[in-house]
Amino acid sequence: MKLSVALALFLLGSTGLSQEQNTASKELIDLLARVPTYSAEFEQLTRDARGELIETQVGRVVFSRTLGLRWQIDAPFSQVMVAKRNALYVHDLDLEQLTVRNLGDLPDSAFTLLLMNASEESLAGFSVQHVTSTDTTRGIGYILEPNGKASVFQRLQIYFFEGVMIRIEVVDHFGHQTEVLFRNPKANQVVELSEFDIVVPEGTDVIGDVTDRDPSG
Predict the structure, then answer these.
(1) pLDDT higher at 45 or 115
(2) Rounded distance, CA 33 to CA 27, Å?
(3) Would the pTM count as exceeding 0.85?
(4) Is the pLDDT of residue 25 over 50?
(5) How far apart (Å, rounded) are the C-alpha atoms in residues 20 and 83?
(6) Is residue 176 scored above 80 in pLDDT?
(7) How far is the C-alpha of 140 from the C-alpha of 159, rounded, in Å?
(8) Are 118 and 32 contacting, i.e. CB atoms less than 8 angstroms apart?
(9) Do 30 and 140 contact (CB within 8 A), yes or no?
C-alpha cells in the first residue's frame, strides 16, 4: 500500500533527465491534489515472473485526504486495511486478527502517505518519470521507482484518465507483477467518516501498539 523535490538523491547526472523527473513529480502531485476524495471497486491480478496468473482478488477502495484510506478485499478472503492518524490497521476477518503498525515504520508507506498528503515531501522516497506508451486507453501514466533499498517493490506505475486514477501496476524484486484495475471510480464525492471504522469482534487477536488509538473509529 507507499515521491520528491529532493530528487537530487536519484540524479543520473543528466540535466535533461532531472528536469523531466521534476516535471513528472509536480504533475503527479497536482493530479492527486485535485482529488481529495475517491472511491472505486477493484480487481487485483498477480502474475509470476513468467507472466502466469497466480492470484485474483476483488474488493473496494475508499480514500479521503482528511479522513484516511480504506482498502477492502472481499474475495478470495476477507481483509480490511485502514490507514488513518499515521497508523495502519490490518484486520484479517478469517484469521480473527487485527495488526496495528505505524505508517512511518513501513518501508513502502510512502505511496500511501502521498495519497494522504500529495506533497513534495511525500515523494522523497521515489524518482518519478512519465510512462512512454502509445496505448491511449491507459491514460496518462507515471513510473515511481523507490530510492531506498528497503522497498519490497522495484517499480510502481500509476495511470489517470481525465484526472482520475484508473490503474496501478507494481513489479516486485522477484519479478512478480500485480495489476490493480479500478472500476466505476468516483472522485470528489462525499465520503462518510464511518468508512474508516474497523468493527473488531470480541475475541479478535490484537497485535501491535493500540495505546491512544481507537481501532473502531
Answers:
(1) 45
(2) 10
(3) no
(4) yes
(5) 31
(6) yes
(7) 5
(8) yes
(9) no
- Dihedral over Cα of 111, 113, 116, 118: its sign: negative
- Whether 176 and 154 have beta carbons less than 8 Å apart is answered as no
Per-residue pLDDT of 51-66, as tens digits, reads 999 999 999 999 998 8
pLDDT tens for each residue of 202-216: 888 988 865 545 544
Closest CA to 45 of 177, 187, 202: 177
Grid cell in block for residue 59: 474488493
For the chain, domains (ranges, CATH) are 7-203 (2.50.20.10)
How is residue 3 written as a grid cell?
Answer: 515521491
Return the CA Rg of the chain.
18
Query: What pLDDT is stored for residue 15 in this prediction?
Result: 32
Average pLDDT (74-103) is 88
Distance CA 137, CA 7 (A): 30
In sign, the C-alpha dihedral spanning 195, 201, 207, 208 is: positive
Query: How is residue 10 annotated by DSSP?
Result: G
CA distance 183 to 188: 16
Phi-psi region of 174 (alpha: psi -120 to 50; beta: other; left: phi over 0): alpha
Q: Report pLDDT for 106.
A: 65
Q: How far apart are CA 146 and CA 55, in angstroms?
A: 25
SS3 118: coil
**What is the pLDDT at residue 10?**
26
Long-range pairs of 211-217 with CB within 8 A, sequence gap ≥ 24: 213/85, 213/87, 213/100, 215/89, 215/98, 215/100, 217/193
